[in-house]
Amino acid sequence: MITPEYLKTRFLSGLERRTMELYSLIDVGDEDGIYRAFHSLAGIGGTYGFHEVTRLAREGEEHSATGDRAAMRRIVERITAAALS
Fold it and tell me: Cβ contacts of residue 53 below 8 Å, gap of 6+?
C-alpha cells in the first residue's frame, strides 16, 4: 500500500540531488537548464503531493530567465523547507 509517508520518503530521497543540480545550474547561469530543472521539480512535486513545492518550482521557472541568482537560490531553499515541513 502506498502511504503518504512512503511518498514523502520517496520524494525526499531525490530532493538533495535535484537541489544540488539546481544550485550548479544557477552558479553557471544556464537559463534553459534552470528552467528545465524547476519544471521537472514542479511536476514531481505534484505527482508526490507536494503542492507547495510545485508552486515554488513554478515561481522558479518564472525567475529562470531573470538572471537573479540570489532570488533563484532563495526559491531552492524555500522548496527544501517546504518539502521537509
Answer: 41, 42, 45, 79, 82, 83
